[in-house]
UniProtKB/TrEMBL annotation:
One of its GO terms (molecular function) is hydrolase activity. This is Carboxylesterase. It comes from the Bacteria. The keyword Hydrolase applies. Residues 76-275 form the Alpha/beta hydrolase fold-3 domain. It holds the Pfam family Abhydrolase_3.
Length: 301
């Protein structure tokens, strides 16, 4: 599908970034899992846009929630500004949850811009969620104990899954939103930091790559921030923000809205910039991922 708003050079730069990111990124292995877990199974999940590759991490049998019976499932959605496509970015998190929580973890390798445009990624993730519920017995996880979570763009897509689950009558147990984006109309966010990771230039580039029609930016699916019923649709939610992240303020606003509506919400601000679950200060990475594990352990039990 063509995107008339981007130039051939921009398309080439996005494609180069997509190809380079998996080569240069190495999962940090922090926190270290208590028990080893095997390599993920690869499954092709049918969606309205064709098959989507997903990686399934099976829990260690001695982990707290691994049994008896079918374990719960956590759906992980990686970030990347709707452009980068690198499931390895979250591999260390997926392994830790499978090892130390005992849930199965399914990581979605959804398609990204500029090869696809809004709302393809949203619809692919929604179709994967429905498949997860419909095939729970076949896949060996508990379809009544499912959580969703992701970082940055993946956090936004996780909110989309909560929106869909509410309409479809699917009772999600929890959502994890790490340095997520909620309002895609904002492309001029600033930070106390001189050169934040998500700069205004990068904000505009991401929006231009994935959202063709500027009018779509305020759609409640493109920007869950504008969903007036969002608090009614969110399950118990962990929101992690960076104090120096340009995306932080809008997610603090979302946390306040959820809390005011009586949602079980936990908000933690970390003294750092964006992407702290995958890079940067190792102590913050360790603390933030362990917080995710503790939150899910309680809500998926």
């Amino acid at each position: 599908m063509a995107n008339p708003r981007i130039t051939p050079l921009e398309y080439a730069l996005a494609y180069l970034a997509q190809q380079t990111a998996p080569l240069v990124f190495r999962p940090p292995g922090i926190p270290k899992p208590a028990q080893p877990v095997g390599p993920p199974d690869i499954v092709q999940v049918p969606t309205r846009h064709g098959p989507v590759r997903c990686f399934v991490y099976r829990p260690h049998p001695s982990a707290p929630l691994a049994g008896p019976g079918a374990p719960p499932l956590h759906i992980d959605i990686h970030g990347g500004g709707f452009v980068l496509r690198n499931t390895a970015e979250d591999a260390h998190i997926c392994r830790f949850l499978a090892s130390d929580v005992g849930c199965a973890v399914l990581a979605i390798d959804y398609h990204t811009a500029p090869q696809v445009l809004f709302p393809v990624a949203e619809q692919e993730c929604i179709d994967v969620l429905q498949w997860v519920i419909d095939h729970a017995d076949q896949q060996g996880w508990d379809g009544d104990r499912v959580s969703v979570g992701g970082a940055s763009a993946g956090g936004k897509l996780s909110m989309n899954l909560a929106q869909y689950a509410h309409e479809a009558g699917i009772g999600l147990r929890a959502a994890v939103l790490s340095y997520a984006v909620a309002d895609c109309t904002r492309t001029g966010r600033t930070s106390p930091k001189a050169n934040p990771i998500i700069s205004p230039t990068l904000q505009k580039f991401s929006a231009r790559m994935y959202f063709v029609d500027p009018a779509s930016h305020a759609d409640p699916i493109a920007s869950p921030y504008y969903d007036d019923e969002l608090p009614a649709k969110m399950p118990p939610t962990l929101i992690q923000t960076g104090d120096l992240d340009t995306l932080g303020p809008e997610m603090i606003e979302v946390a306040d809205r959820l809390r005011a509506a009586g949602v079980d919400v936990v908000h933690t601000g970390y003294p750092t910039d964006h992407a702290f679950n995958t890079q940067g200060d190792r102590s913050i990475m360790d603390a933030s991922i362990r917080e995710i594990a503790a939150f899910l352990s309680e809500r998926l039990s």
